Every structure is written in C-alpha cells, then in structure tokens.
UniProtKB/TrEMBL annotation:
Keywords: Oxidoreductase, Pyruvate
Organism of this sequence: Mesorhizobium erdmanii
Pfam entry (one): POR
Stretches assigned to the Pyruvate/ketoisovalerate oxidoreductase catalytic domain: 29-215
Record-given protein name: Indolepyruvate oxidoreductase subunit beta family protein
Length: 529
C-alpha cells in the first residue's frame, strides 16, 4: 500500500540521502533534448536514485523551447513526491542548448546565484524576433554572458554545438559531457558513458562528443590548433596562403600589395572587402573596388581614426556585390553549398539528397540579366513589359539534384563573366556612384555626416521585392539632407533616421522621424571637417 511508505519532500537542510536534485533542460526541436533527459534519468537510476522526467512543450522552433524537467533522489525505500515542472528559485542545475535560452531561463527565475549551476552552449541560433528586424536584431551575447555569471552559482559555457558537429554527433551528447564534467551530479564518468552505450545508435560519435565536452568542462582539454586557411582565387576566399592559376595569383598579389599600402586601421576591412568582391566577380572587379576605396583614403586622416575609409571599404564591397539572378544561381550551384546542405540535413554517405529550389522572378529581374540596350528597350515599353511579366512572374520549382535543373542554374550563374554589360549592373553602378559622390562631397564641410551617408548603404539589401523596399527606405532617409543643411547635428539626425528605418519593416517609425526633421530649423554652427 502506498500509505505504508509515507512520501517526503526534501526541505532546506535535508540530509544528502533525502535531498531531491532538480534539473531542467531547455532545448528546441532537433537538439535532442528528449534524448538528453533520458540519458540523465538512466544515469541516475544506474547509481541507485529514483528519477522522474517530464516535459513542457514550447510553442514553436524559436518562439519557445521545450523544458525537460528531471527530479531525482537517492532510493531509500521511501517514495519521493516529485514535481512536474520547475519553479522559480528552485532549480539546482539548468542546461541550455543555446546561449539565449540561458538568458530566458534567467528571466524566468529558474537560475539563482545561491544554488544553480548553469550549463549553456555559447553558440547562437537567431530567434524569430531577431530575424524579422530589418537591421541587426541580434541580442548581445556578451551581455547574456555577464548576466549569467552574476545570476548563477556557477556558469559553464563553451561552443558545445561545434564539439558535437566536429565529432559527427548531436549537441545532446556534448551537453551531457559538460554536465558530467561539471561534477554537479554525484555520478562518475563511466555511468554516463554506459547510458550512452545503451542507446545502440550513433554510440561512437556520441561518446566522442561526450568526451570532448567532458574534458572542456573540467578544463583539461588541449587548446584547439587554429587551422591554416587557404585562399583560392575565384572561389571562397580566406586569409593566409593563396593558390590558383598563375595569372590570377599574380593579379591577386598585386591587389593585396595595394591593401598593404593603406593605413593600418583600414587594411583589415579593405582586405575583407577585396576578398568578397573578387569572389563575387573577378580580379578586375577587385581593382575597381580598390580604386574607389583609395578616393576615401585620400580624403581621410588619422585624426578621425580613418572612420571614413573604413566605412567606405565596408559598404563599397556590399554595394558592388549586389544580389541578382546570376549571384543567386552561382551560390546555389557551388559545391560548398551542397556540402553544407548535406551536413545540415544529416545525409549519410551514399544516400541521395533531393534539393528543390524556389524562384519567383519578376520582369525587372529578367530585364536585368539582359544587355543594356535590350533590357532598356523592354522596360521603356510598358505593354511589352506587362506581356512578358505575365509569362515570367510566377513561382518555379527547380530540382538542382537533377541534371536539367542544375544545368539551368549553372548556365545562369555562368553569365557573371558578362555581368558588366547587363542592365542591372549599369543601374547598380549609377546608384553607387551617385551615393559615393554625395558622401565624399560632404567631407570638407562635415566629416561625420559623410561617414553617416556611407553607413546608410546598410539599408540596401536583399533581392527582388525586398531590394526595392530597402532602396526606397535608403532614398527616404537621404531625402532629409536638404532639411538638415547647415545643422551641426546633421550626422546625428541621419543616424537616427537610419536606425528608425532598420527597426521598422513597415516604415512607420521612419515616417515619424522624417516629420520631426521637417520641423527643425538650421543651426548657425556647422561641424568642422
């Protein structure tokens, strides 16, 4: 009879053999939170504990993690009373499968400085709220780290996702290794390993990830050697040794030598931009990029920490590498993308992966891939453009795992050798030159304003309709320049307008900010160069 063995609930000051250990795991779909909870429960039972595992499902992938809650107590012959979900201030160990989940656990009160050991993977998965913001919506990782240090009794954090991936396993295995290495539970390493081995699937990889994370948590792991990166001209570029055809290699070395002649503060950004531009097009395109950066360097000085040149190096590279049908097709047919997709999906060697690409081209994208004369001819005739748009503007599904589908995209991607002669390129370069001349023209009068005009290029991004909306915001922000003429705080206002445009997809905040600017009058003082 249950009444013969009265239940108990451990209270403060309870003996170790009566204490209930409370552990919560926060994870989203695909991270193996259920497997981790099963492993922890099995470890406890192997060591003479009774344990209970429950789960409270989240809403969706990134709007709510599932909470796996485990309570365990030493089996003394008395039946414990376990709770079904964690309570604020009543969790001994909290495991978060991603950094921001640790932050959410702190907000919810599950982590306390007198009691909780907090174990979290330091990698990031962007939440929905971070993705939908037009600008940089990422929450501050250093702020979460600092808060976690202060809010917990002990904080253990490192990239457990990378450890799992390097060993061909799931993050659940490295999270378990971090738990074991922390010593927060009174169980030895062998108990954990036996629980993993009892699973029967992916045991070798899981044990490898477990061991690596265990050593890292205990501080006994050797520091990882930084691999040497190779730069391949015309492919994905890194920093370090360069290899490729001799003529391309010589061209790249000449461009790299030009970067070395720039001020030290500018070199890093200029080299990054150069790599991006050459990868996007070719060596000659990289030469054009550096020619434009040199114009900013010539007007700049160390007195301003070369802010103008750094902004020019960054935003010119992004402007030159605009997204078009050619770029999209090129990226989708690269071998690196196939390897990435296979890794993310978890396709085993010898298995067949079917990939379907989705396209919805408009007449504007079609005309953009035509020679300047032909594309302009179609766009200048609305009836002809509408006739073609009815036949072009609809969704398409292209199977790039088939020869025909891959060949079609490969052909479109190969058009990049003729990109400079196409209509879209002329349109983009006309817009770029106008923006760049506007920014550099303000340097003698207001250096800070010139930098902010360059930074406004951040507003332009995306492809198709997204690009059109972004360019509209860009134009609306810079439309305030005549209203700010003569004001000493013109740069600050352009920055505020840009931030308003980035925070609101619909543009309501930007509209309000522009109305405020319209009410301002000129100030007599101007910012000195």
């Amino acid at each position: 009879m249950l009444d013969a063995v009265p239940p108990f609930r451990a209270k403060a000051g309870a003996q170790d053999d009566e204490r209930v250990i409370k552990l919560a795991v926060l994870a989203v779909g695909g991270q193996g939170g259920g497997v981790l909870a099963d492993w922890i429960t099995d470890v406890a039972e192997r060591n003479g504990y009774v344990a209970q595992s429950t789960s409270v499902a989240g809403v969706a992938q990134r709007t709510g993690a599932t909470i796996y809650y485990i309570e365990m107590a030493r089996d003394t012959g008395r039946l414990p009373v376990f709770a079904l979900s964690p309570s604020q201030g009543d969790v001994d160990i909290l495991i978060a499968a991603e950094l921001m989940e640790a932050g959410r656990a702190i907000i919810r009160g599950f982590v306390t400085p007198e009691r909780t050991t907090l174990i979290a993977s330091s990698h990031r998965i962007a939440a929905v709220s971070e993705k939908i913001e037009p600008g940089d919506g990422r929450a501050s990782s250093p702020k979460v780290h600092a808060t976690a240090e202060a809010a917990s009794k002990r904080f253990i954090a490192f990239d457990m996702e990378k450890i799992a991936a390097d060993n061909g396993s799931m993050i659940s295995a490295s999270l378990l290794g971090a738990l074991a290495g922390s010593g927060a539970l009174p169980f030895n390493r062998e108990s954990y390993e036996r629980s993993i081995g009892a699973g029967g699937r992916g045991v070798k990889a899981s044990l490898a990830a477990f061991g690596a994370a265990y050593d890292r948590a205990r501080g006994t792991a050797a520091p990882a050697a930084k691999p040497a990166e190779t730069v391949i001209v015309g492919s994905a570029l890194g920093a370090g040794r360069v290899s490729g055809p001799q003529d391309l290699l010589q061209g790249w070395q000449a461009l790299a030598a030009r970067v070395d002649l720039m001020p030290v503060a500018v070199r890093d950004m200029a080299l990054r931009g150069l790599k991006k531009v050459v990868d996007y097009q070719d060596i000659a395109y990289g030469r054009d990029y550096l020619d434009r950066v040199d114009k900013a360097v010539a007007l700049d000085s160390a007195d301003h920490a070369h802010a103008l040149s750094i902004a020019a190096a960054k935003h010119l590279a992004n402007a030159l590498c605009y997204d078009d049908m050619i770029r999209v097709a090129d990226l989708k047919t690269r071998s690196t993308r196939d390897r990435r997709v296979r890794k993310e999906v978890g396709v085993k060697d010898g298995s067949i992966l079917q990939v379907t690409e989705y396209f919805h081209p408009r007449i504007e994208e079609f005309c953009g891939t035509l020679p300047v004369g032909l594309g302009s001819y179609i766009e200048s005739r609305p009836k002809l453009a509408a006739f073609l748009d009815r036949r072009i503007n609809h969704g398409r599904r292209i199977r790039t795992d088939s020869f025909a589908g891959f060949a079609a995209l490969w052909f479109i991607g190969g058009l990049r050798r003729w990109r400079r002669s196409l209509l879209r390129h002329r349109v983009e370069m006309t817009h770029l030159d106008r923006w760049y001349a506007l920014a550099l023209g303000h340097v003698p009068v207001d250096y800070a304003l010139s930098v902010e005009i360059l930074n406004c290029r951040r507003l332009i991004k995306g492809y198709s309709d997204t690009h059109v909306r972004a360019q509209s915001k860009f134009d609306r922000v810079l439309s305030a320049l005549p209203m700010l003429k003569g004001r000493s705080d013109a740069a600050d206002w352009i920055r505020r307008l840009r931030e308003a445009a980035l925070k609101d997809e619909k543009g309501d905040m930007l509209d309000g900010a522009l109305k405020t600017v319209a009410t301002l009058g000129p100030t007599p003082a101007t910012r000195s160069p």
